[in-house]
Write a structure and sequence with these properties.
mainly alpha
Length: 81
């Protein structure tokens, strides 16, 4: 899926493409729409870097069974490559 956002909108928001991805990832994680692993991938950050981003923004880390399973699956995928 491709979403086009005009440069005018990015400038008005004082964001670049990477900043927008991080904003979106943090917001979707905070609203429990993405797991931490999914949000980190969207933000193009490592898991630890994304945790730091959340800490800087004082976003609570909610972590349940679904997130654990997603993270374990992600780790298994990394081991295969």
């Amino acid at each position: 899926m491709v979403i086009t956002i005009s440069d005018d909108v990015l400038r008005a928001a004082k964001l670049d493409e990477q900043g927008l991805k991080r904003e979106l990832a943090a917001a979707l994680f905070e609203r429990e729409r993405l797991t931490m692993a999914q949000a980190a991938r969207l933000a193009e950050l490592s898991y630890l870097e994304f945790q730091r981003l959340l800490a800087e923004r004082r976003i609570a880390i909610h972590y349940g069974a679904d997130e654990l399973e997603e993270d374990l699956s992600t780790l298994r995928d990394f081991q295969r490559t």
